[in-house]
Amino acid sequence: MSPASKAVVELALACAAALGCAAAWSQVRSTVSVAPVLDGQPVTTSVVYDPPLLLLTLLLATAAGVLAVVGLANLRRAATSRA
User: Fold this and answer.
1) DSSP 38
2) What is each CA distance from 19 to 29, 49, 51, 60, 82, in whole angstroms?
3) Angle at CA 6, nearest 5°, toward 2 and 10?
4) DSSP secondary-structure letter at 29?
5) Separation in Å, CA 66 to CA 44, 46, 81
6) CB 17 within 8 A of CB 67
7) At what angle do helices 3-28 and 51-82 cross, to 10 degrees?
8) Which residues make Cβ contacts (< 8 Å) with residue 67, sequence separation at least 6?
9) Closest CA relative to residue 34, chosen from 26, 45, 18
10) pLDDT band per the 50, 70, 90 thresholds, residue 34
11) Residue 24 has what pLDDT?
């Protein structure tokens, strides 16, 4: 596998990880009803985050960033070695 094609694969994986991060983030939070504190008070809503999905989102974002930096560095290195 040539260095340029390896860099393109790394950039494609970075894009896939970024898309996975966005998909996971859209499912991380949900709203729940919270019981009133005192009698006669209205029910309120709260945002709840799912910890495993939040961790997955952070890991995918990290992987996307690392793969993007490494892929761009390899692509630039391959371009300068050809010239």
Assistant:
1) S
2) 17, 19, 19, 9, 32
3) 170
4) E
5) 41, 34, 22
6) yes
7) 160
8) 10, 11, 13, 14, 17
9) 45
10) very high
11) 96
Q: 70 vs 17, 30, 81, CA distance in Å? A: 14, 35, 16
Average pLDDT over residues 26-39: 93
Looking at the predicted structure, is the pLDDT value of residue 29 above 80?
yes
Residues 36-50 have pLDDT tens digits of: 989 999 999 999 999
20 contacts 60 by C-beta, under 8 angstroms: yes
The reported pLDDT for the residue numbered 55 is 98
What single DSSP character describes residue 5? H
Q: Please give the model's pTM, rounded to 2 decimal places.
A: 0.82
